[in-house]
Amino acid sequence: MDPSLEKLLTASVHSRKFITVLTGAGVSAESGIPTFRGPEGYWTVGSEAYQPQEMATRRMFLKQPYEVWKWYLYRRSVCAAAEPNPGHQALAEMERLFGDRFHLITQNVDNLHIRAGSSPERTFQIHGNVFRMRCAEECSQRLVPVPPDLDDWVRDRDLTPAETALLRCPECGGLARPHVLWFDEVYDEPFYRLTSTLEVARKTDLLIVAGTSGMTNLPNKVAWEVSRRHGAVIVDINIDVNPFAALAVRDGGFAVKDTCSRVLPEILSVFQDA
Ligand code: APR
Question: Which of 6, 98, 142, 223 is 20 to 30 Å from 265 at the Cα level?
Answer without folding.
Answer: 223
